[in-house]
Specification:
With about 525 residues, this protein is mainly β. It has 6 domains: about 20-100, Beta Barrel (OB fold (Dihydrolipoamide Acetyltransferase, E2P)); about 110-180, Nucleic acid-binding proteins (OB fold (Dihydrolipoamide Acetyltransferase, E2P)); about 195-270, OB fold (Dihydrolipoamide Acetyltransferase, E2P) (Beta Barrel); about 280-355, Nucleic acid-binding proteins (OB fold (Dihydrolipoamide Acetyltransferase, E2P), Beta Barrel), CATH 2.40.50; about 360-445, OB fold (Dihydrolipoamide Acetyltransferase, E2P) (Beta Barrel), CATH 2.40.50.140; about 450-530, Beta Barrel (OB fold (Dihydrolipoamide Acetyltransferase, E2P)), CATH 2.40.50. Helices cover about 10% and strands about 40% of the residues. The strands form 6 sheets. A 5-stranded antiparallel beta sheet has the order 3-2-1-4-5. It has a 5-stranded antiparallel beta sheet with strand order 8-7-6-9-10. A 5-stranded mixed barrel has the order 11-12-13-15-14. The longest helix has 18 residues, at about 180-195. It is elongated, with a radius of gyration of 54 Å.
């Protein structure tokens, strides 16, 4: 309540009141919404009676004057004319609206959109807050903080700095933003902090967020990125293996960009790199122990110590087996012995060998399988040029297609052997250095060609069976593993004269009468004819 004495109006007017002057002004024109001056003529109960020089006084609720203002009869005040006359014929006045109108005029004169202003949050309303900045302004909840839509209730009663983002003069509305001010302050703080940073220095921060690729560290107003590759010299799968959100941590400033406000941080760089002196610690040829930490199609990664890993290439996993993937030999977590093959300190790479830590069966092949030795093995693979046979030690030997028959022309190894079958062979040659072992099947038997030469001399007439018909002639089996060729030019003249293809006149399995006309000892070929056989 106003701290004022209640004064009753009496018939006796104060000596200073000029009735003539008031009467002269009583017919002045007033406009609704106009701010005018008036005098307090009475304070009665909860009302203040004000004379503005009109034919009637106006009554203003005492509550519009606030609790800290002392009022007295005769005091001059400014009021706003809300209505010229109410139902009782009295002018309707407002002290609060006069103040707001004057405040709005002052606000428009001093501020514009984009300017900064201080104000006090007075109450929470739907969608935001009302702020007293000399006039009432609206602060949307989405613009009350950096994160947006935070709990705005805690802001009521507090004073802040705001940015004017919209002014609607016709409606006398003002929209504010606290978020814009905080963003500017944050950028200024980040810029100042960047000015104090030095590459290589240590800073303490708080783990703000963890991602698959690293951790964001709050350095006190600006975030830096601690990449997962800079967390530990050893192998880690995820940052949460080392850090937790909210954890205080000391990091090293690796680099920063003032323009983009990016900071790169390091944790492992606080200690010396384990790669220092790695060539002395792991000299080429040394045998070391390690643990398999990762398997890739091209090889296995073996950890020798935290931060030091070497690669065992897939070709270095076995002396004898064709390893398609490292998981055929190793598993993650296996403890293994390996041999250092190469060290590249600059690139931080170590090449390791797994098979080199095992005995090499090829070193004993020459003594165990001398040329001429009969062996038995399983056909593991067949190619166009031969068949690979695995011996008991895992060593593979090749039976070339040329070593499958003394006399027969073998077009494909599948004509002689099948994949998966057990076969007997003879060692033809051994090359331990290049890890090659040549085998032969035909060598299991004595070469029959010298005897064939005696039995099939030029001019001799024999019977044979057609095994294959081609466009250039007929292949004739004279006896097992011995074939001769009747060229189309040496076919039966009666058949050739008819112009029909050989396949029309003959079929495989037919027995024919032929004569030997040529024997090629070097190529082991026999030429036959059907002409003049008799």
């Amino acid at each position: 309540m106003v701290n004022a004495e209640v004064v009753r109006e009496t018939s006796e007017q104060p000596e200073t009141l000029d009735l003539g002057a008031i009467y002269a002004q009583s017919f002045h024109d007033f406009q609704e919404g106009q701010v005018v001056k008036g005098r307090i003529v009475a304070i009665t109960g909860n009302d203040v009676v004000v004379d503005v020089g009109y034919k009637s006084e106006g009554v203003i609720p005492l509550s519009e004057f606030g609790g800290g203002e002392a009022l007295s009869v005769g005091q001059e005040i400014e009021v706003l004319v809300e209505a010229i006359e109410d139902e009782e014929g009295m002018v309707v006045l407002s002290k609060e609206r006069a103040q707001r109108s004057q405040g709005w005029d002052r606000f428009i004169g001093l501020h514009k959109e984009g300017s900064l202003i201080e104000g006090k949050v007075v109450r929470k309303v739907k969608g935001g807050l009302m702020v007293d900045i000399g006039v009432e302004a609206f602060l949307p909840a989405s613009l009350a903080s950096l994160r947006g839509y935070a709990d705005v209730s805690r802001m009521v009663g507090e004073a802040y700095k705001f940015k004017v983002i919209k002014i609607n003069k016709s409606r006398k509305n003002v929209v504010l933003s606290r978020k814009d001010v905080l963003m500017v302050e944050k950028e200024e703080a980040r810029s100042k902090l960047l000015d104090t940073l030095t590459p290589g220095e240590l800073r303490t921060g708080t783990v703000k967020n963890l991602t698959d690729f690293g951790a964001f560290i709050d350095l006190g107003g600006i975030d830096g990125l601690l990449h997962i590759s800079d967390m530990s010299w050893g192998r880690i799968g995820h940052p949460n293996e080392l850090l937790t959100v909210g954890q205080k941590i000391e990091v090293k400033i690796l680099d920063f960009d003032k323009t983009q406000m990016k900071i790169s941080l390091g944790l492992k760089q606080k200690s010396a790199s384990p790669w220092e002196g790695v060539d002395q610690k792991y000299p080429v040829g040394s045998r070391v122990k390690g643990k398999v930490v990762n398997l890739m199609p091209y090889g296995a990664f073996v950890e020798l110590e935290p931060g030091i890993e070497g690669l065992v290439h897939v070709s270095e996993l076995s002396w004898t087996k064709r390893v398609e993937h490292p998981n055929q030999v190793l598993n993650i977590g296996d403890a293994v012995d390996v041999v250092v093959l190469n060290v590249d300190k600059t690139a931080q790479k170590i090449a390791l060998g797994y098979k080199q830590a095992q005995s090499n069966p090829w070193s004993e092949v020459a003594s165990k399988y001398p040329v001429g030795t009969r062996v038995t093995g399983k056909v593991r693979n067949i190619t166009d040029f031969g068949a690979f046979v695995e011996l008991p030690e895992g060593i593979e030997g090749l039976i070339h297609v040329s070593d499958m028959s003394w006399t027969r022309k073998v077009n494909h190894p599948g004509e002689i052997v099948k994949k998966g079958q057990m076969t007997e062979a003879v060692v033809v040659s051994v090359d331990p250095e290049n890890q090659k072992l040549a085998l032969g099947v035909k060598q299991l038997n004595v070469d029959p060609w010298p005897e064939f030469l005696l039995r099939y001399m030029v001019g001799s007439v024999v019977d044979g069976q057609i095994t294959k018909i081609t466009n250039f002639g007929l292949f004739i089996e004279l006896e097992k593993d011995l074939e001769g060729l009747v060229h189309v030019s040496e076919a039966d003249p009666k058949v050739v004269a008819k112009g029909a293809p050989l396949a029309k006149a003959y079929k495989p399995g037919d027995t024919v009468h032929v004569r030997v006309i040529r024997v090629d000892d070097e190529k082991r070929q026999i030429g036959l004819t059907m002409k003049d056989v008799g």
